[in-house]
Amino acid sequence: MKSNILVLGGKGKTGRRVAERLSKMGHNVRIGSRSETPAFDWDKPENWAKAMEGMDRMYITFQPDLAVPGAFEAIQGLMEETKRQSIQKVVLLSGKGEKEAERCEQVVIDSGVAHTIVRASWFSQNFSESFFLEPIQHGFVALPHADVEVPYVDANDIADVVVEALLKEEHNGEIYELTGPRLLTFREVIYEISKVTGRDIAFTPISLSGYVKAMENQGVPEDYIWLINYLFAEVLTNPDNQVIKRDIEKVLGRKPTDFSEYLQRAADTGVWNARVKV
User: Which residue of 141, 196, 202, 217 has the fewest C-beta atoms within 10 A of its own C-beta?
Assistant: First the structure.
């Protein structure tokens, strides 16, 4: 049977991929975004009902992160509306090793709505679709915690797990922790990108305070600086986030995408060779 599925953040890294997969399978997909009609805006809860009306299932991604102030209250309000709209199943994207995110997870768990929690490690796509991209294009990357090991997970693997969880009741009540198959440091990642692109990309370790100061000098918004500081100080260095999990294999029956596969796909798009306006 085909379902009516609302994908919140349906234009983001995982939401876009989830929506594409579900649409190809013939499901009726509604994108939850400020630019869509009906619009979904986390800051306008009075409009949520219209976006959720008639939906059977929902994928929840909160922007910018479940750890930020206000996320807990937003998820509380969303789940109340979910019950009013009689949505049958939700899948929540959460952050692995984020205590604040786990508070939001508990709201979903306690709601009485069928659910699956998907906790993801840091995305491989952060280097090609997010905040690490521009320094790589410039050829100079300075990051704190240069030698902390991370099991980067591919957004395509996350999307595959989310689709499975949305459509199959056997995943109800489960919490899946998604990682890649090996650990890499920032230093190693930049070296690998340099090698696959044939470019000279310099990497310099920097203190977290220095990194924050650089963002302040560049006029980066305060709330974004807060989030980046939190992710580096609390999440990246959490020992739980330096552990490889097997849940992708458990759900999909295949091994997770290796970072080298991601590297080649991203390099083939030319994204790391794009010219950057200074």
Answer: 217
The total of structural domains in the chain comes to 1
3-state secondary structure of 108: helix
The one-letter code for the residue type at 40 is: F
Q: Residue 264 carries which side chain, given as an amino acid letter?
A: Q
- Percentage of the chain lying above the pLDDT 70 cut: 99
pTM attached to this predicted model: 0.95
Residue-level pLDDT at 277 = 53
Tell me if 60 is assigned to some domain.
yes
Q: Average of pLDDT values for 170-180?
A: 98
Q: Say if 167 falls within a structural domain.
A: yes
Do the beta carbons of residue 132 and residue 29 sit within 8 Å? no
**Gyration radius of the chain's alpha carbons:** 19
3-state secondary structure string, 43-97?
A: CCHHHHHHHHCCCCEEEECCCCCCCCCCHHHHHHHHHHHHHHCCCCEEEEEEECC
Range of the domain at 102: 4-121+153-180+242-256
| Percent of the chain scoring above 90 in pLDDT | 92
